[in-house]
Structures are given as structure tokens and as C-alpha cells.
Design brief:
The complex is a heterodimer of chains A (369) and B (133).
Chain A: H1 5-9, H2 17-30, H3 34-41, H4 46-52, H5 57-66, E1 74-77, E2 84-89, E3 94-99, E4 107-112, E5 115-120, E6 125-130, E7 135-138, E8 149-151, E9 162-169, E10 172-178, E11 186-191, E12 203-207, E13 210-214, E14 220-224, E15 229-232, E16 253-258, E17 261-268, E18 272-279, E19 284-287, E20 295-297, E21 304-306, E22 316-319, E23 330-333, E24 338-340, H6 352-355, E25 357-359
Chain B: H1 17-29, H2 32-36, H3 40-50, H4 56-69, H5 72-86, H6 91-98, H7 106-115
The chains are: A mainly beta (369), B mainly alpha (133).
């Protein structure tokens, strides 16, 4: 029944050839089965999916059935002197408070999948907390570590690996890894390149079983969990001329990943931002002007890149801020190359911009304090 | 004596000859498992070779045919390439290239557009010169 134009040509005659050819092709195109249509629509981003739903009634049903809308993360605030942690739900405009006594005076090292990885300096206790369910999962004790620690998966999964790297000598580092619930860490000493410095301010992302650590020097150290190998990538930091290394410039760098792509944001909040993609194949940081419609959520603790968010959030970088009765959203538009609100509208010395962080919102309603 | 000779021919009414040959050609070289052994770059290279010179309509024909025949790799790729071509295109573009008649009333369509106004801005301009069908 369905044929290409050339097959149909044999069956038509005279001057009707061209018209029949087009009609046949139209039939071929519109004859997509529901199954194939859904397979195609399921590969569209949210915004393309929404447009597809207006094409016709069949398409509306198919598009809605495969539509995926991701949730916007919540900015979370670490209180200085209380046990009241606050989260701000951006979509509903609501603030939630939770008392999480176990988290004070711990430092939050890493946040992902709705789990916080915290370190209590007094007891050397390293542990996971899910602030929504109040569950805690222990890690082996971490003696006197002042470097960044990260993890690769929800701590409830056996595949979760916790990772940190320590300087032994300027030419060697110790890689410490463990699974949550382990009795002790596994340590491996590796050769290091002096370009890479271990620090609490390093930024770490994990993808495909590989930990990428962006040092404050701008060089990237890579740890392969399967091969148990460490190397510093021979890729010079981006030459970011727009941002002078003044003030607390090392706090205004952020690293995130999506689909295996590593993206770094160099910012001077309120003034300028430059975004780079790590091109490992060609060995350089490529400056990029957009995120392909995705959204960057920047924080010192952990940054994320999210796709398929509702509303006009594509190609923006959001900085976390949980403050009452004030502008909650501070963002940089990559397309417009400017910050919103404008510089004068917010206080650049506001520390909370750099101490607040993003956390994935809960699946259901969260418990009260 | 006019008995027809029986042959082992199974007619596939949903798939035209050209497309059938193409998909069979692919399946002769790769099985589902053997294809998955390739790296991401290798997969892309082989798919690019297979889909070279394909126009939009070809993707759709290949998608429908491979779905019918259960050729998963071709199906996935054809659907992905179709979706890639649809990226950031207007509703009018999609209707034109898929040959779809709008069966919403103007009021219904307006109501739907209002619901997600933000999604209809900034689409690629519809290039009439570019004939991708």
C-alpha cells in the first residue's frame, strides 16, 4: 500500500503524474503508525514536543504520551547558626524549612540525586543525608581531609563510589575510594602532574564511571573507576581574558556535565560569564555560546545541567539563592550575554550566592520540620 | 495442469522493494549484538554511510519499514534522524513536511498555544527554498 514516488509513477498516466506523485509521497509521510510516531516524538526535547502536540489531534495524543518534563532543582541554604535548612521551590514560589540537626556543623561536600554528602570536621564523620526522608548512610571515617569529595551514584546503589584525591608529594597523589557502608577506604598512590593541585575548591563531575576534577589551576585530573587509573589531561586551561583573577575568582568557576560533555563556567557574577566545553579529542576547551537549550545550575558544591525544563530556561546559567522577600533568581543569559537582574539590583558581596547550592527536588511532598 | 508453482515468497505489503533491499543489506552486515560492540564514533560512521543521501521522506519510510521488520538499529537511527531534523522547527514546517492536515479548530489551536506561549518563540524560519523532502 505504501510505496515510494517512483513505484507509483508506473501506475499513473499523463499529466496527472506529478500531482499523483506528490499525493503519494504525502500519503507515505502521513501514514506513520502510532508506534513509529511515538518513537520519533520521544526523541524530541520538551519544547519541540510541545510544538508537535499542536500539529493535529493524533499528534497531540502521541506527544503527550511521551512527553518528559524535568524538574527544576531547588536552591538550598546552609544556616550559619541554626538547624533550620531552607529550600526554595522555584516553580511554586514556596519556601520549605527542615530541621536537620545531624548536618550541623558539617560541611556539605557534594550534592546529587537528592543526597547530601557531609563531613563533620570534629568527628571526621563522612556521611550521606537525604534531607527529604531524613535517611543517613555512613562512609568510612575520613581523617583530616580538606579536599573535595564526590560520589558517582545514589548511595543506596551498590555501584556508588565515593572519591577524593590527596597530595602526597608535588609529583604524586593518593586516590581514596570507597562504597557507602564500607569499613575502610581503598587507597592508591599515583603519579601526578604538578599542574594539578588538590583542593577543597576543586570542582568534580562524574560521568560514565569517570571522575573529572577541575583543579583551581584550571587543569583537569581524571580518575577511571574501572581501570583504577589517574592522569592529568594535557589540556591547558581556557584563556579567559574577560575575567581577571581578582577577588575570590576561584569560587566563581563551575563544572557540570550532560550526555558525557563536560562544561565549565568561568564567571564574575553580575558582570560577565564565559562557558567552555571540554574537547578531549582535540585537546582544548572550546568556547561555546549556548547549551543547546539546556540549563546550567551553578554552585560551589555541585553544578548540574538539565534539559527539558518548562518555561524559558534554556541556555541560561542560574545561581542559587534562598532569600526571603528578595529576588530569588539570579541568572546569566548566554544568548543575551547579560545577567538578570542587572548588576545594581543585587548585592555582589552577598556571600549566600556562593554558599547556597542546588538540590534535586523531592519526588513527593516533603515532611515538615 | 495450470497448477501454480508454490514458492517460499512472503509478500510484505507495508514495505516497498527499494527500502526492503536497503534494510536487508544492513542486516546482512550487522546483527543487533555485533552493532552494539562498536564505539559511539564507529556507530555514527556506519549509520552515516547507511543514511547517506537520504532525504526526509526516506527517514520516514525507513522508520516505518524497519519497525515492521523489527530491524531495531535502523529504526532507532531513522527515528533519531527524523527528530534531529525537526529540532526547533515551526508547527507549519512540521505539517508541511509530514503532509499533515490540521484538524484543530482555530480556537482550539489558539488555546493550546496560549498554554505554553514560551514554546512558540524563536523557531527557525521556514526556508521555502530548501527542499528537504
Amino acid at each position: 500500500m505504501v510505496g515510494t514516488g517512483t513505484n507509483r509513477l508506473a501506475n499513473t498516466s499523463g499529466s496527472n503524474n506529478r500531482v499523483s506523485n506528490e499525493t503519494a509521497e504525502q500519503e507515505a509521510r502521513s501514514d506513520l503508525s502510532k508506534e513509529v510516531l511515538e518513537l520519533i516524538l520521544s526523541r524530541l526535547s520538551l519544547i519541540d514536543n510541545i510544538r508537535a502536540s499542536v500539529v493535529c489531534k493524533n499528534w497531540l495524543a502521541a506527544a503527550v504520551s511521551v512527553r518528559k518534563i524535568n524538574k527544576i532543582p531547588w536552591p538550598m541554604d546552609i544556616p550559619e547558626r541554626s538547624w533550620f535548612f531552607s529550600f526554595y521551590d522555584l516553580t511554586q514560589g514556596k519556601t520549605h524549612w527542615l530541621t536537620l540537626p545531624g548536618l550541623r556543623p558539617a560541611a556539605i561536600y557534594y550534592v546529587k540525586y537528592g543526597w547530601l554528602l557531609s563531613f563533620d570536621h570534629y568527628t571526621c564523620r563522612l556521611f550521606f543525608t537525604n534531607p527529604y526522608t531524613r535517611t543517613e548512610i555512613e562512609c568510612p571515617k575520613l581523617e583530616g581531609n580538606w579536599n573535595k569529595v564526590a560520589f558517582s551514584a545514589p548511595p543506596t546503589l551498590p555501584s556508588c563510589i565515593v572519591f577524593t584525591v590527596d597530595e602526597v608529594t608535588p609529583d604524586s597523589v593518593a586516590i581514596h575510594t570507597c562504597h557507602p557502608g564500607d569499613k575502610e577506604w581503598t587507597t592508591m598512590v599515583c603519579e601526578n602532574n604538578r599542574n594539578f593541585c588538590c583542593s577543597l575548591y576543586n570542582r568534580i563531575v562524574v560521568c560514565n564511571g569517570i571522575f573529572y576534577s577541575l583543579s583551581t589551576t584550571g587543569w583537569v585530573g581524571v580518575y577511571h573507576t574501572e581501570q583504577c587509573s589517574w592522569k592529568v589531561l594535557p589540556i591547558s586551561p581556557p584563556n579567559c581574558l574577560e575575567i581577571p583573577p581578582v577577588g575570590d575568582w576561584w569560587k566563581q568557576r563551575f563544572l557540570a556535565e550532560y550526555d558525557g560533555e563536560i562544561v565549565a563556567v568561568y564567571a564574575q557574577i553580575g558582570v560577565v560569564a564565559a562557558v567552555y566545553r571540554l574537547d578531549e579529542v582535540h585537546g582544548f576547551w572550546e568556547k561555546i555560546e549556548d547549551l543547546n537549550g539546556r540549563t546550567f545550575f551553578a554552585s560551589l558544591v555541585t553544578s548540574y545541567i538539565k534539559a527539558d525544563l518548562p518555561g524559558k530556561m534554556g541556555d541560561n546559567i542560574y545561581f542559587p539563592r534562598v532569600q526571603f522577600h528578595k529576588q530569588h533568581r539570579i541568572m546569566y543569559s548566554m544568548r543575551k550575554r547579560r545577567y538578570y537582574p542587572g548588576v545594581k539590583a543585587f548585592d555582589l558581596s552577598d556571600e549566600s550566592l556562593l554558599t547556597n547550592f542546588w538540590i534535586d527536588s523531592p519526588e513527593g511532598p516533603i515532611g515538615g520540620s | 495442469m495450470g497448477k501454480e508453482r508454490r514458492t517460499n515468497v512472503i509478500p510484505l505489503p507495508e514495505v516497498d522493494g527499494v527500502t526492503l533491499e536497503r534494510i536487508i543489506g544492513f542486516l546482512k552486515i550487522y546483527t543487533e549484538e555485533s552493532f552494539q560492540q562498536f564505539t559511539v564514533q564507529e556507530k555514527k560512521k556506519r549509520c552515516d554511510e547507511f543514511f547517506a543521501n537520504c532525504k526526509f521522506n526516506d527517514f520516514l519510510t525507513l522508520a516505518s519499514a524497519s519497525n515492521y521488520m523489527g530491524a531495531q538499529v535502523v529504526l532507532d537511527e531513522a527515528c533519531q534522524r527524523t527528530a534531529d531534523m525537526m529540532k526547533n522547527k515551526s508547527v507549519a514546517w512540521v505539517r508541511k513536511n509530514f503532509g499533515i492536515k490540521n484538524n484543530f479548530t482555530p480556537e482550539e489551536e489558539e488555546a493550546m498555544r496560549e498554554k505554553h506561549e514560551w514554546a512558540y518563540e524563536g523557531v527557525d524560519p521556514d526556508d521555502d527554498e530548501e527542499d528537504i523532502i
